[in-house]
Amino acid sequence: MFFFLVVALAVVVAAVTLAVVGGGEGTGPLPESAPQRLYDPLPPDRPVTRADVDALRFPLAARGYRMADVDDALNRLAAELAERDARIADLESALAGAQAPAAHAAPGVSTEKPAPQEDR
């Protein structure tokens, strides 16, 4: 029984070796596969939305993900966030600038209407 298992293991190892190296039929070793690329990158013609980030899937490589694809996506997201942060800061400063003159226009005058008085 032990001898049969050793022979079966040798046959399996030989078959795998021939399949990888080439079976002698002139096909050679296994063909190189083309590396997977990111099929649906972030849209270049419009701002990135939450749905774009949710739909983003990176193809697997030998050691995880392709670093170039991940770096491109992170650089794009960083640029979008920096642009939005700058826009928010501009809008907040414009809002603060618009509210400041209204508060200092007439410090002693109230802008509320007085309540009507009832006749007795």
Short synopsis of the structure:
With 120 residues, the chain is mostly helical. The chain has three helices and two strands, in the order ααββα.
Could you explain how this protein is built, in words?
- This protein is mostly helical and 120 residues long.
- It starts with a helix and ends in a 16-residue tail after the last helix.
- A two-stranded antiparallel sheet has the order 1-2.
Topology of this protein?
Blueprint: H1 2-21, H2 50-55, E1 60-61, E2 64-65, H3 67-104
Antiparallel strand pairs: 1-2
As residue ranges, the low-confidence spans are none
Counting DSSP H or I runs of 4 or more residues, the number of helices is: 3
Strand content: under 5%
The topology string of helices and strands comes to HHEEH
Give the overall form. rod-shaped
Radius of gyration: 35 Å
N-C termini distance: 117 Å
How confident overall, as mean pLDDT?
80
Spatial ordering of strands, largest sheet: 1-2
How many strands? 2
Q: Major beta sheet, specifics?
A: 2 strands, antiparallel
Strand pairing plus helix content: what structural class? mainly alpha
Portion of residues within helices: 40-55%
